[in-house]
Amino acid sequence: MINIAVLGYGTIGSGVVEVLKTNGDSIQKRAGDRINIKYVLDIREFPGDPIMEILVHDYNVILNDPEVKIVIEVMGGIEPAYTYVKQALLNGKSVVTSNKELVAKHGAELIDIAKERELNFLFEASVGGGIPIIRPLNQSLTADEIVEITGILNGTTNYILTKMSEEGISFEEALKNAQALGYAERNPSADVDGYDACRKIAILSSLAYGMQVDFEDIYTEGISGITDIDIKYAQKLDARIKLFATSIREDEKEVYAMVAPMMIRSNHPLYSVGDVFNGIYVRGNVIGDVMFYGSGAGKLPTASAVVADIVDAAKHLNKNIWTIWSSKKLELMDIDSVKHRFFVRIDKKKALLDDMRRIFGDITEVPEVVENEAAFITPLITEKEMKDKMEHIPGLLSRIRVRF
Ligand code: HSE
User: Fold this and answer.
1) Could you tell me the pTM of the whole model?
2) Ordered domains of the chain (ranges, CATH)
3) Would residue 350 show up in a list of annotated catalytic residues for this protein?
4) In angstroms, how far apart are the furthest CA atoms of the chain?
């Protein structure tokens, strides 16, 4: 029997308990031993829930119990999660976490501590919910140099954009539904302003390039500026707007990373990734393109990834599974020199398409969707050029990067 402790009995924690109970027999076969939840830590009480029998409020009970071999951190946030996880590793316990904030900020250090002690620090559920992506990057795509990772990495924003587009519901209503379904972060800004996707692409990039990609260095835009009119224009263009988290190695040299809404057409592999689903597209220099797709948020899909890590940790109790993620910082390329085409809407009362031709050169006109507005797509230009030109566009209503 392998004893584990679950820190946090929220959406994911209760999902982990449920998955271990529902699939206990098959999990035992795969892990080679029975996984027993000895403790659940939470500050709250859960009257009437059988969990009360193993509920503790003091982390030291878990930390000082040598029978606990694996600690499952599903509380979220940096503190006290970081302190608890570090203490667990220093006390000889492997750790499984779903906490992307923790992994993005302290992943390199916690991996090192685990390595030094022949323990494991596993975090499959921190990116892509139930989708296996960390293990493939770590263990399967090791023959390749990764040249691009582009993902729809936030289920909440994908759900919101999909519902706005398919059902014509408002941003607020779609967000409320996502929250009720357990997809969203406690603070909605983490989802809608792109911070959650930013941390996830920082984790994937750090693993892909084996060096520390600081999430603070990643240019991040969310979807709060996307309106129903933008969505109508996208539909007119046979396109969809998706929140992309991207990291690309340009010319086999520098890497740039960004999170931003992107207009894509049906020839893009991520076009059909709708609802709460996540999709991650990885390009390797040998394998070519690989796609990962599945539920990116929600109780049971995320718990599935956590439990898969518990099984891996149980199978490798005194053996570290090698992960290359050095604490050496990867200096990202200046985003200003990255090139895109941009979809632009202007107020016709303040500017004309002829003015835009003078500013941008060869623009592509977009059929009118709203009276008194004009819209067009720019040629391929750098972010810096776009920023400079935007200052000279009177009546600019919106601009969205385009990948077609
Ligand atoms: N709020 C996150 C999302 C949860 O919507 O994708 C999974 O990390």
Assistant:
1) 0.97
2) 2-129+299-329 (3.40.50.720), 136-295 (3.30.360.10), 335-402 (3.30.70.120)
3) no
4) 74
